[in-house]
Amino acid sequence: MLKYSKVFGLVAFVFLFAMCNQKSKNDESKETILKGSLDITVDETIKPIVEDQVAVFEGTYYDAKIAVKAKSEAELINDLLNQKAKVVVTTRTLSKEEEERFAKSKIKPRITPFATDAIALISSKSNNDTLIALKSVIDFMQGKTDTGIKGLVFDNPNSSTVRYMKELAKVKEIPTNGVFSFKTNEEVIKFVSENDGMIGVVGVNWLSQPAPNMIDLIKKINVLSVKGLNDNTYYSPTQNDLAEVKYPLARDLFIINCQGYSGLGMGFASFIAGDIGQRIVLKSGLLPVRTPGRKLKIRSQIIKDKE
């Protein structure tokens, strides 16, 4: 009797394993490059452009659903390395050490550049001076007091803007005095608009594509023109100055896909890098990695409209 019960238990186990395995395969087959569901973790400083891309992608491919989760850069990269996130949108590519870590796990990330973004420096509208030297900002980051800057305001200590400015100033930690941090770019914009003398550090995408509840706040701030370290001219974070590589606080944007198969992550990355996605980037105020083509119809004569 005991023998038969063991055999029965073994058969039941094999049956359940086969059913679970079949279910897993069926679940995978539900996702393709143009259908299924996907969670994308996004650097909070570039959330607006990704939300626009997702809205158009879902409107084009009705069977695709993408959920956007905004996090700081440090959290985002940590989730990616620990395989808690499979697809992320970042303001930097992977470091050599991070690539080696993926290689040990036999994972080859697909990295797709799709735009050039800018870090914008902002001040209250009540501040008449709309020019700032990058050297003054770097000096302030290095703890120097005679810079003419009252304070710097970041979204949060783990953000990509903090990492970028720390690398630029060649410091390991930001100063404890005169530096303020919140949780989002929205909070930075609000704080700067209400406090004279403060310089906010935000992703320019939040200014070029403000949410409806942010429009009034945007009207209360100035976007500062910045003089680079080896230049005497001030430049703004506009598409033109980004295209001519003149604005000194530019950075590239990437979508990193670690799904490991031809899923929705691959489809979304191809969409962003394709013609429609690049047109969305162009309209957003950022600089696309490739200029979308334009079709011109040339006529041999002018056709007058009928009156």
TrEMBL record:
InterPro entries: PBP_domain, Phosphate_ABC_transporter. It comes from Flavobacterium cupriresistens. PANTHER family: PERIPLASMIC PHOSPHATE BINDING COMPONENT OF PHOSPHATE ABC TRANSPORTER, PHOSPHATE-BINDING PROTEIN PSTS. This is Substrate-binding domain-containing protein. The keyword tRNA processing does not apply. Residues 36-274 form the PBP domain. Keywords: Signal. The keyword Phosphoprotein does not apply.
